[in-house]
Amino acid sequence: MEGIDNIFEFDYGVKSGWIYRVNGSIYSKSAGAYTVKAGDVIEWLYTLDLGRDLDDVAGFGGAGDE
């Protein structure tokens, strides 16, 4: 994924870009490396500060990567 609705990585600064969450967990690996399963809920979130600006995102390397 490059961009959504013509918004791309770094459009709003060096720390901005897209992150994704699957079933409530953030993954640090590429979205292309994730195998989608039936029933998965995938959300794309745009961050301006490497995810720190998103209230409900604890950061990368969380439960999703385990």
Helix content: under 10%
Lateral arrangement of strands in the main beta sheet: 4-3-5
Individual helix count: 0
Q: Characterize the largest beta sheet: strand count, sense, and whether it forms a barrel.
A: 3 strands, antiparallel
Poorly predicted tracts of residues: none
**Would you report the number of β strands?**
5
Mean pLDDT: 86
DSSP strand (E) fraction?
Answer: 25-35%
Q: What characteristic shape results from the CA principal axes? A: globular
H and E string: EEEEE
> Strand pairing plus helix content: what structural class?
mainly beta
Distance between the termini: 23 Å
- As a whole number of angstroms, the C-alpha radius of gyration is 12 Å
Structural domain tally:
1
Task: Please describe what this structure looks like.
It is built from no helices and five strands. By secondary structure, the protein is an all-beta fold. A hairpin with a 2-residue loop joins strand 3 and strand 4. The two termini are 23 Å apart. The model has no long low-confidence stretch (mean pLDDT 86).
Attribute tags:
66 residues; 5 strands; 27% strand; three-stranded antiparallel beta sheet; mainly beta; globular; two-stranded antiparallel sheet
Summarize this structure briefly.
This protein is mainly beta and 66 residues long. It has strands at 3-4, 7-8, 17-22, 25-26, 42-47. It contains no helices and five strands.
